[in-house]
User: Fold these one by one.
Assistant:
Number 1:
Amino acid sequence: MAVPFSNTKLRVPRGFQNLLEGLAKEVLRNQPDNINAFAAIYFDNLLKIRAEQGIDPAEIGAKHEDRFYNNKAFSKAGNMGDVSDPQQQQAATTIQAAVRGQQVREEAKEDTPVEDAAKEDEAATRIQAAYRGYEARKRVNLLKDEDDDGKERTEAQAEEEEEIDIDLNDPEVEKAATKIQASFRGFQTRKTMKDKDVSSFN
């Protein structure tokens, strides 16, 4: 069956193009699995906004389309751009807060691995410093005891006293050792990467 030729040009209803463009942008942004359900929720939200705030994207889109078909629309002053309107101020504040919140969340996602690595390095450094301080204090006490007593100790006794009784099966010790090892490996990797960068420039 042939379709009769027609010279008539069909137009999309006023404001409908704006609604579809808004839906298309949200679908591309959110990438939903079920587009039909997403579209239903999207249009329900638009209806709620229209009922609560009186903002109708279809009407706004129709006014924008009128710019191209009827330039007299520009001469009429409407409250579309009225910055003193409390509803528009509230809407602008809500949009700005949402955008800023999204930016903060994105920055937090980007900064998390670097901050965690820095915290682990700092924790490992503190553990190492505490252990070195403990060893140094122990040696100083041993030297003082030797001077005070005037007795010479055998090497076997000195080795027994220097031994530290650390439970290697303790989960806390394992965590600390893992952090120290990870910190050292990170240091080694950064050092080799830095050396490679320097050698690649030469």
Note: The mean pLDDT is 79.
Number 2:
Amino acid sequence: MDPWARLSLALRILAVDPVGMGGLWLRSRAGPVRDIASTAIAQTPFDRPQRRLSASIDDLALVGGPDPVATLAAGRPVHRPGLLASPAVLILPMAESAAHSLTARLAQALDRGHHALIALDEAAEDGEGLPSALSDRLGLFLSLEGERAPRLLPKPIGRRTLAKARALYPLVTVPPDLTEALAHLAARLGIASPRALLTTRRASRAIAALDGRTEVTETDLIQAAELGLAHRALPETEARPDEPPEQPDQPDQQPEEQDLQSLADLLIEAAQAALPPDILAKLQSDRANRAARGASGTGSAKSGNRRGRPLPSRPGRPDGQSRIDLVATLRQAAPWQVLRKRQDTHDRALIVHRSDLRLKRFRQVSDRVLIFVVDASGSSAMARLGEAKGAVELMLAQAYSRRDHVALVVLRGAKAELILPPTRSLTTTKARLRGLPGGGGTPLASGLATALDTALRARRHGMTPSLALLTDGRANIALNGQPDRVQAQEDAHRIATAIRAAGIAAVTLDVANRPQPALADLAQTMHSRYVPLPRADARAIAATLA
């Protein structure tokens, strides 16, 4: 099925059960293709009106509130209903840039069961996209990236045909074997969300109803899975072949003829199972806590009066820099007009007191950069280096999903090297990481100094930096490049103190065979979260963490 036929099917499914499906996540950049898709949406005969939102819409327009103009005209408080006041199919352009407050409002509206949402995702880079609070609630997904405009758009469904499908829809059943197959498919794709299974099942029933049948077939389920499950599949799960049967325990020593890349892949899998899944969330929490304690420059958001996302206005006096929020000021003054006019001797149409003035505020959110400092020295054996790479890849995926920038500093030889300046390219970072050779000394102090310099430079460019250190802690190269274990440890602690003083959040992953007390002490000096990664079986660790 070509993408345009799939779009037509998705809109028909949504027209049959808009509330049950939640909505449609449509990825397409602004242009002729997106315009044609918007036309197809507009021509779809939903059972409720379509309402177009803005990514910067405020709460007054969305949920309603006092109308200052009508209040002044009527001389009494007048409430204006918002766009969510009655059931509708909501259309949100530039959904990828929606504010968290708007995302929360829309998620609540979808949960109440009165609305459906068509989110137009115009993300320009891989990794950008819809906030998970919305994407998890939208049962259908379609990407038109790279597609050409069709010569002829599929004909929209007729109202009479749609009415028959809606009447038949409650009678459609799904055979038990197909329900079980759907559950197995979701498990193979690594999809844990029960909402995805329910909406895909509903989509298969809608497809059958549109075809005039009361029982779902395998073809219906496949078409529904293409729209409801394929985009949720984990990349590693999609590409993974069937696992071979378990073999008896083998000695720890691997045969020499075994391919090194295969061994590295196994170790990467082990590290991905062992690494705490919320490590970056904890790192972000550390950063927020430091900002709350007053550490300079560590906050990822700041209030201003010129640019950014709108915040609720605050009382104040104009100082030449702040701007008056006229609507909020009128809203504040409106309820007092009758009383004030009784006391006014100048017969003014509008009486505004200084206490009514409200000033505009905006939130400016800085980009975040996660700086990986990876130990590729000789003391970190090939197996441990492989696990370190796996840990980095998992954390990298988490950072990428948050639209963060990443940088890569390598500890190897006489001094550390910044092999990847801050970037948002997942492909480039993984390529640099997988091609990383091991060997040489451990210039830990040099690596921390390079990371600190990179972090401060990023901060000067308006970014919020964080560090992720992966090492066995056996520093043996001093900051001057000379082999000296004692001096190397002293230099590392000195730089760690500077990192702490700069208010830079950090996490330290101990990749030694056994946890190293010296590295734990360094993490404490740096005020970093310390996470040991001892050698263990991947499945056992995953079971322990479950």
Note: Residues 301-365 form one domain.
